[in-house]
Amino acid sequence: MADGGSSSGDGERSGGTLTLGIDGTSAINDPAFYTTVGDWMAVDCICRGLTFISFETTEVQPDLAESWDISADGTTYTFHLRKGVKFHDGTELTSKDVVASLNRQFNKDDPTLPKGASRPLSSLNATIRAIDDMTVELKLPRPDGTTLARLSDIGGRIISAAALEKYGADIGKNLVGAGPFKFVSATSGQQVVLEAFDEYYKGRPGVDQLVLKQVQDPSTIVSSLISGDISATQFTPFSAAPRLRNDDNVTVYDTPFGFDAIMMLDARKPALKELEVRQAINYAIDRQAIIDQAFFGIAGLPKGYAIPPAQPCYDESLADLSAYDPDKARELVRSVGAEGRTLHIIAASDSWHPKAAQIVKQNLEDVGFKAEIETVEPATYFSRIFDTNGQFHELMIWERNSYVPDPDNMVGAMASPSQAVYSNAASGLGTLAGAEVFDELLYQAKNMPSGPERTKLYSEIQRKWATEYMTLVMLAVATNFTVSGANVKGLNVDALSNFRCFPEGARV
Known about the structure:
Layout lengths: L5 E2 L5 E2 L2 E6 L14 H10 L4 E2 L8 E2 L2 E6 L5 E6 L13 H12 L20 E6 L2 E5 L7 H4 L10 H7 L13 E7 L3 E6 L12 E6 L3 H10 L4 E2 L7 H4 L5 E3 L6 E7 L9 H10 L2 H7 L5 E2 L25 H10 L6 E7 L4 H14 L3 E7 L1 H8 L9 E6 L6 H8 L5 H7 L10 H10 L5 H17 L3 E7 L4 E3 L7 H4 L12
Parallel strand pairs: 3-12, 3-13, 17-18, 17-19
Antiparallel strand pairs: 1-2, 4-5, 6-7, 7-9, 8-9, 10-11, 11-12, 13-21, 14-21, 15-19, 15-20, 16-20
Helix pairs in contact: 7-9, 12-14, 14-15
């Protein structure tokens, strides 16, 4: 939605308001505290990190650090900060800001952390110190080749140290960064309002105001895109694709497939205790039906298993791991006497999830199982993943997005027995004999340079994970359906389709 604005010398319109539709907002925008995707989109716009990944490329680029050195043993990173970078409160970037910001990720007792802080970088187990005013040193207990990429993620965002001192644990209500947009206001359940920062070190954004507006009803999202009440969103319902592709009021983007549509299997449950049963479930799934009916064609077959095409190490030699073979599924079901066994499916009630659950239910019944579905509100779904005693904690339909475009963000997050969510709470992978080998293999893989050898190791890990354990059934690889008004230009839709928000180049 544009209001006001003027034409620049190159003929491009500048100024006005860009309104992005978001899933929700708690009005707490804190790099160490996760609530909604919308809140983290605000963090992306208000703050920037030492490094940056644009998603138009997966290469790590300098940001608030203009360069860095890595020690020979790979455990020490020395960052040289960019001079003259201003925060929204008028202070200039120094090592004090970096140390104060990253300590909140690495130190669980930092007094500026809000209750329930998620600290997404905590697993690096790093320490950070200032060498001088413009140089910081980050030390790891052991090498981690994903460090530079992970510092580009939400948890690596740098906050004004002066603001942290002033607001403490309430920084999420008063976030001050050095990004292209500065905080104006936030209303829980409604919107976050930001305005262009004139002194952003890369240049003033192309719009005067950015509004992140909560819009959850699918029909309202579609009508708001067409009317111009929202300028763009990656939360467009897939079912609207045929209509929107034929509407001149909007632009539909075909962004790379960067997220995994998945079904996690809890191997601790009696109904799923046999590997043959979990393999049968995998063979039973008609993925093309899910692509056609749940994603309306905006998805693809998971030929690279858990690594989507948009990421390095994608390998189509793994296509057989997601083969549709109902006859093989029936054979496996009979081999362990599992005919008529009831399986429970849980899915969120939004987007593609309910339709996919219906297709999965039918697929399972077609090969000899019985199946029941429970759909729950998206706001409560995450807590249900941790309710391992729940009856429906058997087959869990969910997704994994490419917040960092590296295979460690997918395979490392879901196949590591020490990973808190996917492998412990969800699938119980860590309880299965021999699964501890994945931690060492994944550690080796993430520390390898990009290239054929790294791809080979990730492929070997995935094949072992699928054939010997099968705790993850891939349903599809997809992208978050991103649509804008026809008047919106220059929006980084590759980032937006991965729930990252870099709209400083957009114009309306």
